[in-house]
Amino acid sequence: MMRIAILLAILALSSVSSAQEVDPDMTAGTELEPGVQHMLFSFPDFLAQPDGMALDRAGNVYVSNPNFNNPEYPGLLIKITPDYEWSVFYATPAHPETRKAGPMGITFGTDGNLYIADNQYYVNKDYASRILRLNMENGQPTGVDVLVTGLKHPNAVRWHDGALYVTDTKWEVEDSTNTSGIWRFPEAELQDSIHVASTMDAEYLIDTLHAIRQPNGMAFGADGMDFDSQGNMFVGMFSDGRVFKYAMNLDGTVQSREVFLEYGTIPSCDGIFIDRNTDNLYIADSQANALRLVEADGTLHTLAENGNTTGADGKMDQPCEPLLVGNKLFIANFDSPNENFVNERYDDIHNMTILQVPQEFLGAIEGEGGR
Ligand SMILES: [Ca+2]
Ligand SMILES: [Ca+2]
Ligand SMILES: [Ca+2]
Asked: What is the pTM of this model?
């Protein structure tokens, strides 16, 4: 850990531009007005792009940082304590060929280890992406195992019923097909490293989805994914904003897929978090700088929405993932826009937003037990 700290200090000193850091405008004990956005953190340049989040059993939140926007820095994981103190937790090991790591989605398994989507798409589109397991003992990292290789654009990861599910936003063999996929890896088979075939009917691929190509040419598919209290899986399409609801068979195969949010309901769908006390979906609408809440019956609410900002005001700067921590939402901001996004440009403030969820959307608070 000390070596990482020294490396980061050297890199920060040698960096040409440096981040503007803005202090949080609240602490862990502050009462927040429901629905009002606040600055949770702004980070130094070596944490330019907070993305995936996971909560451990002790109430610590982990955040991935692929640093695609600031590629001189490694892909990092940070840890946020229940008192909202953050520190660098782990530098994700670089891919042996690309020399980069791109940690995006992260989630805890029932074994207490952290599963990481190492997304190599932005440096290598030739199926170089991986799933890693960060082994943990007593809250400390003890090493990494490479569990899956051959993925293209792994994004969200979730455990459900003895298997690891992964969305692959650009699982396509032909660039013209706008396709994406959903993987399911049973826990027992992950003990030996799996290399998936580069085909549209590869083993472990349980569904493929076609994104609707947008006027700007973008066709990013399956992105956010989570399970409700009944074991239904929800998957959102990044560029076209549709959300699909899946019922699963006991063996993990797909029983049915229905459209949960129709095309045109919300502009885009990045990270999805489902509160299993209420089965409300929290959706990061990346393109619109908005945070949506969708009830189990499909009723749509907008919890927060704002115009272009650097994030200096604490507000959303291209939100990519929500996580409900107690009764507050932590929101990571990716700040890496396409040309039709409300977010106009990547800037030198790298912030996370916090928002008190209005009481009407909350159920009784129960321990989540780590996710
Ligand atoms: Ca995502
Ligand atoms: Ca920003
Ligand atoms: Ca921005």
From this structure: 0.95
